[in-house]
Amino acid sequence: MRIRLWPTLFPAGRRSPQQLDIEPTATAKPIGIVYDADGTVTDALIGSGASSDCFTNATFGGVDAFTIDGHFAHALVVLDGKCAQTSGALPDLKYHLVRVLGRVFGLGWSQLNLNAITGIPQPNGDDLAGLPVMHEDDLGSCVPISGCYPNPDTPKMDDRAALSRLYPVTIANLSQFPGKQIFAAQTARIHGSVKFTDSSGDPTQAMQGVNVVARCLDCAAAGYAASSVSGFLFSGNAGNAITGYTDALGNAYNRFGSTDATLEGFFDLGGLEVPNGDGTRYQLSVEALDGNLSQNVGPYAPWQVLPSGSMQPVIMTVTRGSDLQQDILINGSAVDTPDPGAPDSFTAPRALPKTGDWTGELGSYGDDDYFWLNGQTNRTLTVEVTALDDTGQPTVGKLQPVIGMWSLAAPPGTPPPAYTFSSLNTSTFGLTQLNAQLLSSTQFRIGVADLRGDGRPDFRYHARVLYGDSVTPNRVSARGGMPILLTGYGFKTGMTMTVDSTASVSTSATLLSISPGELVATTPPIADSVQNISLTDPATGASSTLTGVLTFGAGPNDTIRLVQGANSATPVGAEAAYPVRVTVSSSDGLTAVNGATVQWSATNGAGLSACNGAATCYAFTDESGQVETRVSIGAVGTTTITAVLAPASYSPPKTVQVSINGTSSAKDLALFSPKVWVTQGATLDIPFTARLLANGVPQSAQTLNWNIGIGSGTLSPAAVTTDGAGYARSTLHLNRLAGDVQGTVCVAPGNAPCQTFYVIQVLPSALKLQRVSGSFQTIRVGQTFQPISIRVTNSATPPNPVMGVPVSVQSMIFLPDADEPVEITGDDGSSQHAMKVLLGSSLVTLVTDSNGLASLPVSTGGFSRPLEVEITASAGTGTPLQFELPMLPAITPTPGGSTGRARRPGRVMEQRIRPGDAPRPQAQREISEELPSRTPISLFVDEIVDCRPNSLNFAKNQSEPVARADAKKDASPAGQKRECDTERSDDTQK
Question: For position 33, what pLDDT does the model report?
């Protein structure tokens, strides 16, 4: 206790000698007593209105100074005069005064006969008579106090024994206490240690915090009982390497209590009275300390620990002057389980389990657990530690977990930049949670410790790290629907994934498959931009954010380039001979960008095929980065076609333009797509379309003659009459194309004007394959794959689509392998080695159309189970295209079974990650089995108290590689649950 307001109440120069006597420095008058006649002092020291609460504040005070060797030097006691206004109030005032004086003399709170307070079970006369004065709490209904307990202010045997142990009458001091007898000679003593036992019943580590009770069995009078908490002389809170070893004032937490290991479970029942002559029987039993009514009893105060195991009561016969040693072995207590693998330490942490989920224990005093992992900058993660009881269920009565995080390079003794200031800092029962932000790409250390620095075999925990590390691919289409693979730690069913550029705007992604280290999801449609990925576990509030890892469509440095667009003058009402084609690529100019948004627009009344005839619209590039449109001329003059890259996302946007001149005359003949590229040896039909216009008006019932001038082929019909829209169509039949073909279409009867059409032969060696759509697909069982679309072109610059190309498509259906052994629920035929298991195969040949396109069907062979379809498409002598499309199992796990390994998204097989490739940033060694999933009761709440000087500033230091992700919560909240300083000046006995 520190009286800091005293100078305000009594300014310097206006204090009487009596007032100086109550200062902490007035050690010549060891106890200063203030009678606060009107409650002013009480209100000033405790708070406005405190003097009106006589139940709590009738008397208060305590020791406010110590000697260097740890003795009490001075104490202050304040009596609230407002609680002594009537004679009826005096007994309660006396009761509270006796309790405060007990604290001044060094008595700790005691727990004995707690049912005398709770009524469970119904107390008898012995229970009421033995209730110590120094029990911690009274029920608010006990006014007056005599209505609840008989002789409430009279010390009971438990009080007398504790006081006598502190101030015993001995042979050395007997002369100072006339009429007294030697304490040890007139009473009995039972002492020993409470200990855990191993599987053979042999004693192991001492167990502190257990209430040991001795009850007289032969005493005729009531109330002969005493208690002692094991480890009452031991340091119950020594601090730890994570939250520190000193309080906010720099005082060591272990300044009260011994560090002698022999005192860890020690209890002392000295002062047992023997009223029946020379001998009597006492029964020893143990009980847990009540976390509410006895919160501040014993060394663990204020966080009581439930005992592990049980003991049968022991009956001992004592005599006056006897001093008996009796250890208490707790049967069925928790057994320390050695950590798998090599022991860990701060300097030699274990690798984080690959699942990010494990169970562990802090099995011996001062034990900490340390793990390392690789992490990347611009990531956040959550570390969760749930304290477990002896049955493996969450608890608040065992380990008080705290979590810290450092860079692996940090030397021992370095305070963690990110740590939990307190344990159990969420509203989820038994759960402690740390949210950390990674500020650089390096290796990190995670530490788990007990808040008090304790450790014992029943300090078990279930830990989990939720961390998203990397995403593949890192660029997806803005149209959405592409699967991505997220690797990391601690993934589990029930999680959600969102894509967001700001905290206020997010879009959910569809999860396809989840395993602890991999997650497959389908992206939502999002405008061109660089986005964050956020993972959240609604069950606990755990989260991980990967900042700026996924580009949708075009990125800020991507480029757009005009590939094709030059056209000769085109009559009004006709379509330009060649399409306008653009390509979007990354900043290197080589990597095609799939799904980038391109805004088309045309002037002068033109219509665009990409816009269904409208003058403007948005379109997406295909998997080769291309998008094109045909142009219908609407008016005489210059028509400008503009392609703008992602105008809604970037300013100023990148733009390309091309112009086409619109003409008009009394007789205009237009030929659509006058050049067609066809593979050598093809036998096929090519449709040609022409349109006859007069000043932009379609001319019907006019004859057009179709002729072949060079090469061989058959036109059918050779003479065609234009329809009501001015169109005339003829089909060119080719049989085993062996060379170029050239022909004309002319207006009869004078064969003027005319237009020329061309069929250009393409050798098989010049063929190339391009991806168009459907390459990246991942579905679940029961869904259907979309066809894959490819384009075959020649080798020209720019390339031209080739018609009539036979495309060989081989499809093979395998059991899923993910390039390593897998496990699928209920699957007794799954692959257990790298050799694939073939379920079915097919081989078909498709032929490209006039746009060079072929649609590849994707069949699952009628199987309704997880599988993998691998497709190879080849044409001519060009490089084949390969595709791998997974069909995943359902996400919901079968009870007692496995969800199966998360499969990678559909990808080209050249990009497959094989064993021996660069490892993912996961642990190299496993340390424990994964604990089954639990469903905690609510979301994350972090109410914390900063008990370490400058910890907030240190956590925010951007030069550190890790910081608390929730640093905004670091200020101590009003009405905080826990005190920073858990010092106990009264640990001497109870």
Answer: 93
